[in-house]
Amino acid sequence: MKIYITKFASFQPSHENPAEQPKLEYVDALFRRRLSQITRMTIECVHNLGDDIAGLKLGFASFRGEIARQLKINKGLVEDADVMPAQFSLSVFNTPPAATTIALGMKAGYTAIYPSEDNFLSALIACASTILSGSEKSVIFAYADEKIPEEYANCAGFSKDLPLAFACVLSNEKSSGAVEIDFEDENFLENTRTPKHFLEYLENFAPGME
User: Residues of the chain whose pLDDT is less than 70?
Assistant: First the structure.
């Protein structure tokens, strides 16, 4: 039940500008102009893992997915009883990982994971299961959630935390500077219940790893 995190990268906007998005200057301009904050953050984090990730499978997790686009779709249904196909195609839950694989030329495939009842660890374990079972040696795990639309600001169940995204390489092989993850370690399980806590765990144990 042990794996290793060999690389990680993160992106979080400032309190002054929670709608901030990565510029993605390395992505085709026509492609990136249609991308949402959550998708841009996902691409940026996976890209920053380095040049040797193209052959790795990607596991993506999010609590809310493309929530801003979903709201826009709902408004269109209520106000106009119509939805534009282009808008719908970018509003689905797997848009961030799909766009990431296109933007970065990743052809190994991806999985989009919805953590039931905001259980972040269930998503991490689901992604790590391919390593634990021996079917993969290394995979990428990415998480992202974007800015909550103002319409949802006072609704119960929506976190007031800043948008956050990160990506890491999970591996069955220990390398220099790698962080060991033991899914039977009560301390680890207790201190990584949320994406924010998981990222803090990585930063505390491997402050120089990026």
Answer: 76-78, 81-91, 156-160, 206-210
